[in-house]
């Protein structure tokens, strides 16, 4: 009988992760802008004049 394998903390998960849902209004607020820091670099998520989302660095 074999024991079930448990993934290590460094191993990527093979199970799909459930993602949450958040509205763009909650993220961007009245300003329509969110600054995201990723690996030491800043990105801007904002709403365009055509009411689309754009992510820029």
Automatic annotation (TrEMBL):
Domain of life of the source: Bacteria
Pfam families, per database record: hemP
Polar residues: compositionally biased ranges: 14-26
UniProt-annotated stretches for the region Disordered: 1-26
Protein name as catalogued: Hemin uptake protein HemP
Native species: Franzmannia pantelleriensis
Taxonomic lineage: Bacteria, Pseudomonadati, Pseudomonadota, Gammaproteobacteria, Oceanospirillales
